[in-house]
Every structure is written in C-alpha cells, then in structure tokens.
Amino acid sequence: MAVQFTDYVQMLQDLEQTLRDLTALQPEKIAAVRAHDLEVLNDCMKREQAASLALRGLEQKRANMAKALGVGGVPIRQVAGHCPESCRGDLSRAVERLIRQGQELRSAQDAARAVVESDLRRVNGELERRGVATDPEDGAQPTVPPRTMRTDIRA
Q1: Given a cut of 90, is residue 4 above it in pLDDT?
Q2: What is the chain's Cα-based Rg?
Q3: Which residues, other chains included, contact 152 with Cβ-Cβ below 8 Å and sequence gap of 6+?
Q4: 10 Å Cβ neighbour count for 42?
Q5: Which of 46, 12, 25 lies closest to 152, judged by CA?
Q6: What are the counts of helices (DSSP H) followed by strands (DSSP E) for the chain?
Q7: Cβ neighbours around 24 below 10 Å, total
Q8: Residues 80-136 pLDDT 10s
Q9: Which of 55, 74, 52 is nearest to 5 (CA)?
Q10: 117-130, pLDDT tens digit by residue?
Q11: Percent of the chain clearing pLDDT 90 (strictly above)
Q12: pLDDT reported for residue 155
C-alpha cells in the first residue's frame, strides 16, 4: 500500500507543477495586455487552455487514485492521516505545497483578470467615444479575426 501512496504523492507533485505552469502564464498575459500584443495574448490563452485541460485530467486521476486508496471522500488536507507512517511526511508536504500553489495561482489569475477587464473597459470606452457600437445587438457586425488569432474556448 505504501507504493500506492507514493504514487499519490507524485500525482500531487504533478498537480502542483501544472498549477505552477498556469501561475507563470499570468504575468505573460498581463504584459501582453499592457503591450496590446494580441498575438502573445492569444498564445498565452492557448497555453493556459492546454494547461487547464491537463489539470482537469490530473485532478480526475487524483480522485480515482484517492478512491482506490480508500480516501476518496477524505478532504485532501486530511489524507496524510490515512496513509502509512512511512510516507505521511512526504504526503503532508506535497499537500501543503499544492494548496499554497493553488492560492498563488488564484492570486495571479485575479491580477490578470483585473488588468484584462480594465483594458477591455478602456477599449470599449474608446470605441463608444468614437461612436463605434460595441454590442452586436446595436447593429455592429462582429469581424472574424485572422486564423492565427483564434482561440478554441470550448474547454
């Protein structure tokens, strides 16, 4: 059973790394918005989408592993109390790092969201000042961006 819990620890480390990757994208996204570089922003969004999909897959795998280990309904902070003593310390540290990285990601995403929303309000204000409709219901026809500027948002 200890081997399975060590696999679970590795899974938590993989989740932490994916969260770290997502966190690292946020400053790039902010810089792209501030520089009005749509190509870089689009690239960031594509990488963010790929990392989010990977995160979803890892979380499903983690849930399945937890169920197989008999800790499926146990909150992640309490899983260490249900594992063998030999891996309890590693598991506790992995959980704490994962939680901390999740908090850092939320903070970075909040900052990026604030910058994006601010820039969008500024752009909409400028469009309104110029008399350009920003709402498709107002009669403006949305334009189709070039193929290189499209992002699949179905995730």
Answers
A1: no
A2: 21
A3: 46, 49
A4: 16
A5: 46
A6: 3, 0
A7: 13
A8: 999 999 999 999 999 999 999 999 999 999 999 999 899 888 888 888 888 876 555
A9: 74
A10: 998 888 888 888 88
A11: 67
A12: 43
Whose tokens are 């993989």? That residue is 14
pTM as predicted:
0.76
- Residues present in the chain in total: 155
Measured distance CA(31)–CA(43) in Å, rounded: 12
Residue 39, CA distances (Å) to 26, 110, 123, 138, 155 in order: 15, 22, 17, 28, 20
Residue showing tokens 């590795």: 10
CA angle 45, 48, 50 (to 5 degrees): 110
**pLDDT of 92:** 95
